[in-house]
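>> received
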Amino acid sequence: MAASQRAQLEASNVRLMKDKAARWGITFGGTLVLIALLLIFFYLLYVVAPIFRSVSIEPLHSFTLPSHGKTVALGMEEQSEIGFQFDDSGTLTFFALQQTASSNWQPGQVLLQQQVVAQPTAFAATQPQNKRYAYAFGNGMVQVVEPKFRSRFTNGVRHTSPYLDVNEHSPISIDPQQRKLVRLAYEYQGDSQLFAAVTDDGSMIVNLLQASRSFLTGAIELKPKFTELPLTKAVDDVLVTPDLRQVLVRQANRLSIFDVSRSGVVTERQTLTVDRRQYGEVTSMTLLAGASSIMLGHESGLVTQWFEVASESGRQYKYIRQFKAGQSAIEEIISEFYRRTFYTISATGEVGVFHTTSEADLYFGKVANFHADTLVIDPRANTLLVQANQQLHTFVLDNEHPEVTWSGLWQEVWYEGYPEPQYVWQSTSGSDSFEPKFSLVPISFGTIKAAAYAMIFAVPIGLAAAVYTAYFMSPRARKVVKPTVEIMEALPTVILGFLAGLWLAPIIERYLPGFVATLIFVPIAIIAAAAVTSCLPSRWRQQCTDGRAAVMLIPIVIGVGWLSFELSPWVEQVMFGGNVREYITNELGITFDQRNSLVVGIAMGFAVIPTIFSIAEDAIFSVPKHLSQGSLALGATTWQTLTKVVLLTASPGIFSAVMMGLGRAVGETMIVLMATGNTPILDWNIFEGMRTLSANIAVEMPESEVGSSHYRILFLAAFVLFIFTFAFNTLAELVRQRLRDKYSSM
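>> returned
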């Protein structure tokens, strides 16, 4: 007796120890899962946070301007180690900006000084990325030069030296009448060059020098196409575009746009008159990076942006947006090399930093309390060189992500060349003048669209199958059906995406009427079969057990589906003129893509069905039997018991099943990547595709530069996806608990 009690006590102690170990193990595992989720959350924030940092300008070096002439242009080489200055006496001076590992240069030390021309009368600089400069001198001649830098490596150390490259065709005669040029604009494309100039007698001339190769010698020859424009007022500014197709002439607040044809013919296309009362007098003008936008500075401190927009009379320049850069006149606007960021210098010496597309006011004020006269940005946009009086000051500029703002990510943005503000995701292009577009709205919408169509397909099938399997099917059949459906969940989604994109999509396109008919008539056939069965004599109905009824429906479903597809060509010929795709596109005006939302909804719904089925079936099957038996005993029918008792009791689990399926659909990657066109559009059209957050990350992360705005915005997309799934799961848990509390007393 005593031995038996001791054995029971020891067994009880062992059980308690096992329970405690299990409890601690489960708690430890759950804590690790929570920690992992928090680490993911904070790592995403860590990567995303830098895109919202403000501009930082830190002083680096100061030194006296090497040349005593008036500066007409400043510049820097890519490494920000050497700067150069063009002055009004025609001299080019290269000077050190910082000491390097390969030299003992001191900031401001003159490295090379060379006289380009004597007694220049005008000066012009190309767009920053083209890096050429032109001096006009006597008799309508122009000298074109390019500051260059030669690098060599010795024992792994880079040595850079500057030199001046003189254009092989220089000097160039611009004016056949050999008049003095007092204003000059210049651009080139390949070997062709375009000059626009104002002469001392007030005439406006345009000269397109087209390059052609000599058939005999192979040498490049420039053939001039000279035009004199009929202007009556004084010209204040003149610009030409890098594509050599436009000349922009400003006369006070009147801006004339001239088109230059390939044959050299110059025609006036548009005249803009800027409202003085609204914006103030125009004081400066420049082209933004890419040369698609004109930036006008005003005496009121405003900077306005204008670019071409399609209209009934063709593409016309139109006012787009404005920026406030202080209260004094804008004396100079400086554009970055490749981004749509620009810098302003006001009459009071204040510097402003702005980004056009994001409409961001990034910085405004006096840099280190200096009165800025002019400034320049290096090609990498991380060094600022400011001239104040006869002093030059270098600053470290931290402005990595000016194009990213909350409004740019989530609101409509008016991009260059677009007819109106739009939501656009287009991160890359083959052109340096490309403007990246980072709206998260299209891909977030695509995520919701894909999940919605998948749930429309999966929820009715998954829940209906769960109800039938758990409540109506015989235990013997359930043991076969339930594991079979659950095994479907192990099917790799890449296989489903492959089949959907290469097999299902062409079938739907070819047999679209038959496919739609199948979706409509198969449920009708099942309901009709049930209605016919209910009218049969009771002894026949008793033979239709649950398993037999399901087997009897299989040939009906197959037969209706086969008939729908067989009749599809006939229906297409009779009702849609032989081509349903053309009918949808031309007659209904609906875009039809082969890989579309319908394909994605079916394929992803097929992947989601096992999740919904398994959880919902377990919830329905777990309803206590005494509840359903009591309902039947009180006289309720089987259907009444199902709808009034079983489904209500199982509703927390059913809702969890739907929300788990939705979470799976939101995070799905491979199916939407392979079964849709991955086009980031905002349209509920079932015959068009979409791009989802997860697919966008999978497609673009391998090509993104680490640390770039593109890279960090992809992490932001991952963070948004994380929030989506977290919100869905949290909502599911709240509703499940509420339903559980409501129906737990049954």
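>> The chain has a mean pLDDT of 87.
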